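At this stage, I wrote out one protein, both as residues and as discrete backbone shape codes, and that material follows here.
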Amino acid sequence: MRTPRLAGLGLATMATVALAVAGCSDNATGTGTPSSAGSAAPSATTSADPAAAAKLAQAVEQLDQTSFTLTASSGSGFRMTGSIDAPNGKAAAQLTASGPNAEINVKTILIGQDLYAQVPGITKAGTWTHVDGSRLPANANIGLRPGQIDPVNTANLLKATTDVQATSDTSYSGSVDLSKAAGVAGLGQVTVAASNAPVQNVPFTATLDAQGRLSTLTVNLPQSEPLQVAYANYGQPVQVTAPAPNEITEAPDSFYSSLGS
């Protein structure tokens, strides 16, 4: 079995890529661009509700102001959990890609600008690989990365939303333009590009909790299982510490080349 390339292991694309990884395919390089984005005809949509859009934006802003946990999934092939403490700049995440013949588990820890990873086939058992964030390709996503403490990159994703409407006091719907969000959490690099599906008006829904904080987010990815994210445990302590010095090795050049650099 060949060592799988990891450039396609972005958050939203991982359900699709997992099948290729598990089958030892080298097609999951994640280097494509959404060619259909420029030619897709905009669909008729309802007018946006500025008040609803403002409430959703306020909910997203709170992700930078407190600690929280998240669980993201897309079908049975992708699952990710994360514990994030944005004010103190630390987070831990674990993502799993599974398919018919194999399962890959990647763990990451972020402390300030220091990223540590455990990647099958690269990191020795019982150790952590210290990753130079400046060498990570722009579209590579192994869970966490310096400058992106939220592994779903929710804020940037929802900046590409349009036609936001309130469907109840705490529920919202609208569209997200994946051509603008390409590269955010891996969106558009594999799933969208491979499907040649329209990407300019992809439906999403979101709910807030009683305190106006983001509770759930669902993006109906083209020709793929929906990306479903649940946010919880706001304000609770996050126990994340750096690995012991004797457990850390520097990432070799092959680590970055496996990510497509």
Remarks:
- Confidence is low (pLDDT under 50) at residues 1-46, 186-194.
- The longest helix spans residues 50-61.
- The chain is about 15% helix and 30% strand.
- The radius of gyration is 18 Å.
